[in-house]
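Two proteins follow. First one:
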Amino acid sequence: MFCKDVQKRLELLNNSLITISREQIHLTEKKKEGTADLRLQLYHPCILFHDLEKRKLQFFKNQKCSDYVMFEYEQDQNQWLVHIFELKRSVGESEWTHLIRNRFAMGRIPGNHCIFIRSAQ
């Protein structure tokens, strides 16, 4: 699915914290306010990092982080795309300004896609 170098590095990771697929990936978040649930149909091999909130790097001042980060490998273009997912029941203007935007302060790269999923009420 991936080149030897990437495959070798993937073997260093904890398999319970990542999902590797080229078909479908399932994202969920359950909170007292509601549940967000998303199934992604994939067209390229992807590596999904999940449970980021529980495993963030402690040396950063900003301790807010997204729910999921997915790396998508477009083989025909030989390029990696980064997708950042934050699942929320609803996102108001003040929440966007003060909470959501800060979660991406360390992860904003031109060309990234930020997707916000609103759960059914």
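Second one, unrelated to the first:
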Amino acid sequence: MKHDSVYSNWDSLLNTAITENSMRETADILSDQEFSTLEIPAHYDKKIRNIIRHYRSRLWLKNLTSSGRKIASIILLLTGITFAFLMQFDQVRAACMNLFTRVFDRYVEYQYKNHSSSESRSVDLRLHYVPDGYQLAEDSRDEYEIHQSYQNEDGQRLTFTCMLKNATIHLDNERHTIHDVKIHDWDGEFYAANENNSEYLNMLIWENEFGVCILTSQCNEETMLKIAENIR
């Protein structure tokens, strides 16, 4: 019992000491009334307001960026779905291919390799039909290419070239509209000039058993196909 009384007195003294220490530590703390009447220096007030304004701006920008990402993701998803659906149609696929060609390639490149087993055979191709008024102005031929050029009284030229060996050809597609054609059983492409002048000519390119052939002139497509079909 004596020990219990001692411990009880000790606890009371300890609680009293803690209470007095806490009261001394909090004695310097302002009361609510004193705090409400406290005047903060102007430069401190300005600094605090700037911190609050900066925080609100960052929070607004973060929310705006998050919303923008969500909207962009939805738009990209809908665009992808729409594009995938449209690509099921042949016309759309062809239009997309033409678009990429026009935008990214100013020139179309043709690479020709002669796989003939008889490299030394003699080739004597000639134009057996030319429009009225055109006369032969140049005719050159060797083991690598055949070149013939015709000209009329107005100075308009019609040129035929057949490359018999390996060749790389670049044709301008920036000022031409391109579509596929047939010369007998051979596939070809017709380049229709978008501008009607002597600087930009119509072009016809195709490959046959002798090499790759190019025909250029101001003649229309029907006439140029007729000329190509009569080259032998």
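SUMMARY FIELD: The first strand starts at residue 107 and ends at 112. Helices lie at 2-25, 32-36, 42-86, 90-104, 221-229.
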